Amino acid sequence: MRSMLPALLMTSMASIPAMAAVAHNDPYIWLEEFSSPKAMAWVKSHNDKSTSLLESDSRYKTLYQEALAIGSAKDRIPMPSFLQGEIYNFWKDSDHLRGIWRKTSLEEYRNATPHWQTVLDIDALGKAEGKSWVLHGIDCFQPDQRLCLISLSDGGEDAAEIREFDLTTKQFVKDGFHLPRGKHRVTWEDKDHLLIATDWTKDDLTESGYPFIVKRLARGQSLDQAQEIYRGNKNDGGYGVTPTTLRDGQNNALTAIERPLDTFHHQSFVLTKTGIKQLPIPDKASLVELVAGRVILSLDESWQNGSTLFSAGSIVSIDLDALLQSPDQLKARLVWQPTAKEAFNGLTSTKNRLLLSILDNVQGRAIAFTPTANNQWTAETLPLPDKLAIELGSSDSQSDRAFIEVSGFVTPSTLYLADTAQDKIESVKALPPQFDASKDVVEQLEATSTDGTKIPYFVVHRKNIKYDGTTPTLMTAYGGFQVSNTPYYSASIGKLWLEKGGAFVLANIRGGGEFGPAWHEAGLGTKRQIIYDDFASVAKDLIARKITSPRHLGIQGGSNGGLLMGVEMTQHPELWNAVVIQVPLLDMLRISKIAAGASWQGEYGDVNQDPKVRAFWERLSPYHNLKQGVKYPEPFIFTTTKDDRVGPQHARKFAARMEEMKLPFYYYENTEGGHGSGADLKQTARTQALTMTYLYRKLL
């Protein structure tokens, strides 16, 4: 629907002049010293001011109690993982703020209240060791699944310490594998060898702080005894060289190494009997799974393989034995290719089958693929509810069973157990309603962007809504890194917002992966303005439909979505009355100098090497495009001190510039939490309550 806003409100990119400020004249560069006493004193003073205002609001206490109750509710679905023929689960509640890793049998798991055995208590471990441990990952060696690598982060940052853990003894292995704090890339090569990419010395990291050297570490060796097997380049982009070992249910294995060239392009290598060999596949193709002796590749660009052209977004397979014997001459087979409205969303494998999750106009479907004797594949769509989000859960490499979660904005999650060998699907767990959705309806609508492209979006609102522009509306999107935003059941949004009469909007703007690689690539680098136009176009469509109005419209986003919020606030201050900017990127001229920012140049372009990219971000960078005399909405800026991915520096500097211009804002920086809302349930509940209190004050 065409926007009915007056032309004077349609602010274009060209009408926003660039500020003269450049990095070397940056008056707030001292705030980039993220833990310096001066910077932390600044953080404390601004935290105190904002939290005292918001927490004194009469609504805050109730919102906090509701958020904490939701986060620690006992009737949540304990999400399962197959391991050693049992079901494992990581669980947080009010008694276990950092969480416990526990196990039960599949038969017991089917019960309403399973009997669990604790395997590892993260709260107790942190208390015993005097650390603020947050569990960051578990990787168990296949096929016996007894020994596991446990990643522990201090306070929630990306960097982690890795220790070997024995599931039989429920203890860390004495003199077992151990890696000190770092941004490690680790895979089991076999039971007694790890392949590791890490900061072997202070010089063994790329400019964005990721490793580029892979070494083999044998059991009993110290790190300095590890043997180098592959070396990338210190100038490599992306997230660091990554070793991976793929295994299937027949105990076939393939060890691969991915060397990133930038955020999205990489070279793929495999370990053969004659050494490391590079595969002749596209730089946007990834080895993602091994199924019954077939290597599965995901293609984010088209691939001419012999006489066959595979389209971007397709899934293909290559026979493992043929690949290892002739890695320079690959013969691929098509598994699945998307239509114009479809996109690959995720995959997993069982002992004999490949399971694919796809999007069809941003609605979920799941398909089971079975390999045939002539290296072809047969497909069967799993009988799951329509028009909902479908997420593949844990799968069992020793059988053909897998868990699948189905949910929607007003449809509580249901967990299904699929046995693809017997074509059987059963519901094993269902989340009780966490809020009253009886008065709500979900619509999928479309807005028209500035280039005529139709942009779909979901809106959840009361069935009896008055189309008079008075409905308080919260809108969000991500718009980057080919990340797809799909419908999801959020108890906190439902209880704290929808139940109170608010509307919620999820926009499927370009930059994401909702319609495959092309949807993402449409907004890369200096083409990125179209992403921001898409978002503003959805807002204008909401206003034109009189669902809401600028007085009652708020927006929220984090990380790259935080950058989106910053741009929308500076480009279209007239469209919003509330802007929640979370763990954001905001200084796009110094992005490569802050935390891991250099690793995202494939997404945003390189402001240091490309004059066109720099000129583009000089016009759009939120930190540099705040202007005196403009009536901006008063934003809520949230970040965390422990965020070593994006870094708190962007948020701090943006707030400081607003303060310099005497522009009002709220600022809250959690001292833990990493690149998220908190390191435990209480921290997360506080962040949610502060955010919702702010939204109530602005939009009701």
Could you describe the 3D structure shown?
The protein has about 700 residues and is α+β, with helices and mostly antiparallel strands. Helices cover about 20% and strands about 35% of the residues. It is built from 13 helices and 39 strands. The strands form 9 sheets. The chain has an 8-stranded mixed β-sheet, sandwiched between helices. Strands 5, 6, 7, 8 and 9 form a 5-stranded antiparallel β-sheet that branches. Helix 2 packs across helix 13. The model is unreliable at about 1-25 (pLDDT under 50).
Features:
700 residues; alpha+beta; 8-stranded mixed β-sheet; 5-stranded antiparallel β-sheet; 13 helices; 39 strands; 19% helix; globular; disordered N terminus
Query: Within the largest sheet, what's the order of strands?
Result: 32-33-35-34-36-37-38-39
The share of residues in helices is 10-25%
Main sheet record:
8 strands, mixed
Helix count equals 13
What share of residues are in beta strands?
Answer: 25-35%
Could you report the average pLDDT, rounded to the nearest whole number? 93
Q: What is the CA-atom radius of gyration, in angstroms?
A: 25 Å
Structural class: alpha+beta
Number of strands: 39
Straight-line distance between termini: 26 Å
Low-confidence runs (pLDDT<50, min 5 residues)?
A: 1-23
